[in-house]
């Protein structure tokens, strides 16, 4: 998903991040109001708080719980289920037994009917959930009494258990509403450690600890997520004491190193920055242009200069230290190769050093979201590298409301990346069946080799077969790039040093309230 605001339901995987908002919170969010309160600055807010529309689908939701959750090391652990699922020998049946005594925040008990309703509604084509393809393996979900849920799959899907971190909604409330327009989107009722107290759109979300949570009442009693789109403003408000913590670009986080009252947390991620190369644009649809751009870009310079070393070059959608990464696809900037590719394809150098082919200039627009300094710097560096090969990239900032209708034909400096299994992030990024489906496959990439590899990786439980498929996919992306992969970016957080129990996970692209040192906010303990 794009690192923008999490605009569509598919992108609402983050707990409380998403759509880029443009205004800072009012003075009422001032930190330090109480020892048990926390004010965190994030860049964006969600469109919806309904899991039926995609909110919290990857876990760590503070309002809802899933059947399972992930620990610091991303290993699955029981949540609403009392244990990990019992899996049939053929890999087609997963059985979960629910934890006893769990109640929703309105006092009603959790039952297996709530789990069945949640999954059935998301799988219903009438529900506007663009993450539905992630649950494609499900054939049937049924209740076996009040405390047992049985999933039957169409085919063995190796990473299925990881899909059951999806938050569960109360059937008794949700079934009375239209899932697309009902109040669950803004008035959520869940089983999670926090309750939504208020939401001022574009400004802040305030949460109160759930005193009756099955895991125990959190010590951080009040949590405010201040929506501050501009990186510099977020840093300024943190420095002034208006915020207790914030997610910051590496260069701004570095300015707090001498502040003994604050602590910096670095999180490794699957989050990458990339340029979408839309197939419906007559320049970016040319394979020679795409290959030349891939060769012209200086990824290591971007890591050094833009990320201040907090990241790695991206040679594809998976980071180099991922066990599924295809060894040997690493590549350096090669301007001579870029020029040679363009020469062979008939792109001749013309006015101002910009190439042309049959009267068409090698020129296209690259959009990036306003207020995102890291993306702006990536876009400008990309344009500079492209010009050295004779390709003109016109960089332009805009809001996501402006970008969304234009991304069919204009390139976008986007962000994606899902942790866990490769199927989680690669299918929605690359499969041709999802071309133009909201923010899925934004480049409208269409490659039969990649499609086949994605389908094989999704439908096989044999690790050797899956590994071969994803290896083949990554090598095909080098031959036929639909995106120019730039960097994998670490996430950096700065927080007032007054709590213990803080850790980070290896994070996906979406981050904010879901990730960072506050991913396990309910487990924090105040320093003595």
TrEMBL record:
Record membrane topology: Lipid-anchor
Compartment(s): Cell membrane
Domain Solute-binding protein family, chain residue ranges per copy: 75-433
Species this chain originates from: [Kitasatospora] papulosa
Protein name: ABC transporter substrate-binding protein
Signal sequence range: 1-23
SUPFAM superfamilies named in the record: Periplasmic binding protein-like II
PROSITE patterns: PROKAR_LIPOPROTEIN, SBP_BACTERIAL_5
Pfam families hit by this protein: SBP_bac_5
Protein family: Belongs to the bacterial solute-binding protein 5 family.
Membrane-spanning intervals of the chain: none
Top-rank taxon, per record: Bacteria
Keywords: Signal, Transport
């Amino acid at each position: 998903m794009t690192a923008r605001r999490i605009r569509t339901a598919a992108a609402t995987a983050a707990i409380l991040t998403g759509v880029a908002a443009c205004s800072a919170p009012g003075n009422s969010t001032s930190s330090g109001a109480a020892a048990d309160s926390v004010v965190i600055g994030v860049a964006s807010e969600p469109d919806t708080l309904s899991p039926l529309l995609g909110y919290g689908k990857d876990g760590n939701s503070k309002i809802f719980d899933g059947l399972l959750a992930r620990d610091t090391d991303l290993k699955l652990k029981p949540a609403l289920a009392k244990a990990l699922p019992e899996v049939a020998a053929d890999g087609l049946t997963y059985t979960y037994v629910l934890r006893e005594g769990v109640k929703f925040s309105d006092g009603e008990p959790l039952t297996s009917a709530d789990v069945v309703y949640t999954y059935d509604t998301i799988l219903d084509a009438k529900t506007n959930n663009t993450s539905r393809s992630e649950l494609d393996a499900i054939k049937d979900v049924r209740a076996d009494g009040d405390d047992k849920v049985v999933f039957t799959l169409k085919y063995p899907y190796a990473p299925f258990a990881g899909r059951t971190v999806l938050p569960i909604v109360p059937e008794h409330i949700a079934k009375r509403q239209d899932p697309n327009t009902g109040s669950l989107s803004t008035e959520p009722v869940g089983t999670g450690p926090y309750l939504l107290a208020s939401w001022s759109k574009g400004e802040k979300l305030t949460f109160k600890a759930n005193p009756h949570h099955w895991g125990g009442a959190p010590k951080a009693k009040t949590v405010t997520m201040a929506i501050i789109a501009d990186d510099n403003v977020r840093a300024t408000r943190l420095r002034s004491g208006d915020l207790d913590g914030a997610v910051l670009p590496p260069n701004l986080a570095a300015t707090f190193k001498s502040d003994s009252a604050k602590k910096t947390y670095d999180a490794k991620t699957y989050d990458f920055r990339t340029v979408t190369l839309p197939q419906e644009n007559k320049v970016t649809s040319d394979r020679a242009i795409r290959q030349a751009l891939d060769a012209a870009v200086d990824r290591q310079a971007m890591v050094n200069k833009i990320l201040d070393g907090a990241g790695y070059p991206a040679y594809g959608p998976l980071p180099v230290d991922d066990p599924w990464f295809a060894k040997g696809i690493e590549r350096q900037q090669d301007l001579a190769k870029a020029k040679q590719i363009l020469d062979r394809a008939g792109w001749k150098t013309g006015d101002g050093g910009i190439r042309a082919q049959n009267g068409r200039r090698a020129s296209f627009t690259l959009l990036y979201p306003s207020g995102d300094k890291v993306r702006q710097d990536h876009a400008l560096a990309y344009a500079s590298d492209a010009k050295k090969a004779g390709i003109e990239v016109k960089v332009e900032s805009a809001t996501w409301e402006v970008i969304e209708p234009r991304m069919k034909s204009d390139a976008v400096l986007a962000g994606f990346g899902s942790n866990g299994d490769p199927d989680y992030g690669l299918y929605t990024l690359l499969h041709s069946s999802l071309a133009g489906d909201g923010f899925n496959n934004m480049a409208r990439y269409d490659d039969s080799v990649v499609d086949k590899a994605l389908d094989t990786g999704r439908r096989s439980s044999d690790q050797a077969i899956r590994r071969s498929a994803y290896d083949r996919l990554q090598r095909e992306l080098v031959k036929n790039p639909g995106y120019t992969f730039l960097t994998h970016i670490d996430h950096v957080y700065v927080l007032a040093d007054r709590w213990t129990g803080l850790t980070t996970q290896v994070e996906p692209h979406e981050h904010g309230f879901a990730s960072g040192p506050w991913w396990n906010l309910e487990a924090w303990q105040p320093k003595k």
